[in-house]
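This part of the workshop introduces the protein records we will be handling. As an example, a complete record with its sequence and its C-alpha cells follows.
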Amino acid sequence: MAHAKRKPPIKMKADIRGYNFLVEILSIHAERDNEKLSNKASKLKDKILRYSVPFETEDKDTLIDIRFYNNEAEDLIEILFNSIDEFEVNANYFEVLLKVRESIQKENREE
C-alpha cells in the first residue's frame, strides 16, 4: 500500500515491438527454475501488463509508457543481465568504451 498514491519515478517508453520483447523476456524468466528471479519476473510482468499506458505520438506512432519504482528497475536490470547468455554479441563494446574514455581524458588534458 505504500505506493498507492505515488507515481513511480522511473519512466520508460517502448514501441510495440520493444514492449512485446520485454514482456516475453519476463515470461521466459517467470517459468525458469531460479525461484527468486522467477518471482521477480512474474511480478514485473503482471505490473507491466496491468499498468502500462499506450499512447499515440504526434507522428501517429504507438508507444507504451512503462513506469517503475527504483527496486523494480533494479529487478528488471538483474533479469535482463540474466538473459545475456541468450544473445550473441558481435562487437567488443568494452574496447569501444576504453577508446572513448581515453579520448575524453585526452581532451580534458588539452583544455
